[in-house]
Specification:
CATH architecture: 3-Layer(aba) Sandwich
Number of domains: 1
Length: 315
Amino acid sequence: MLVVSMGELLVEIMRERVDEPLGVAGTFVGPFPSGAPAIFIDTVARLGIPCGFIGSVGKDDFGRLIVKRLKEDGVDTTHIQLLPDCTTGVAFVAYSGDGTRKFIYHISRAASGKISDGQFDSSYLSKVKYLHIMGSSLSVNEAWRKACYKAAEIVKESGGKISFDPNLRPELLDIGKIREISEPILSSCEIVLPSGEEARMLTGIEDADRASQRLLEYGPSIVALKRGREGSWIYTKKDKLKAPSFSVEEIDPTGAGDCFDAGFIVGILQGWPLEKVARFANAVGALAVTKKGPMEGAPSLREVEEMLRKKGGEK
């Protein structure tokens, strides 16, 4: 496998309408296959790169839904275990008119929170070019943290590289703990892909530009700052470039950052210049928001290439 990701697998069940809070009776839509690392790897597969996933689901309809989707899109699911004694993880989501979201998670005590040593070994990970780690996976529980650290160590020792999306979830852990558990991955990764808020939280620096530059001092060679409608800013120790966004109709923003990550890693694997990598990743992230459901907008390579041909970058 060229790319492997690991972490929480879950279904997402969301409020049907905007500004409908979770704490009152109302309607939901779903279930949709989800989990940040799962959205990432599904997109990598749809972009044509051999990839695999390490994780757990319950031996139930939700679990079968997730595995079926990943397998159909081309993800190697050999290292996804189906647990008969656990239910599949679930996230309930409500959207606000200002674009913010509120979650209620059932993850840490569900199948999502289970990982065993037998699910992966050095023979599987030693061939990986990039292992993608999410902060949300580090946040699930201690077993998952140890598994992520071990997997990263195996990949690094075998000559592979680590990419890291902080994907901070204050709903799961406080910011101090998140910084603590992120440090081992942040200091060993090649690429870190934060949002502005995540860059600020990790560094304690309010200005996202300066925070991103500070992140380079932690160890990464590249910081890809996701700026939503403003595109992305890419930092290296020698340079900084700005890649404009693409104008699309936003239906559902969930998963856009994970899809951007996938586009970025795919571009890096192709050996493209960083400017082309960022433009490609911006297109992938833009297409992700055009359909309802966290994984439904993950585009194929053909769809991304068509957007790049037709629209170009827009400021």
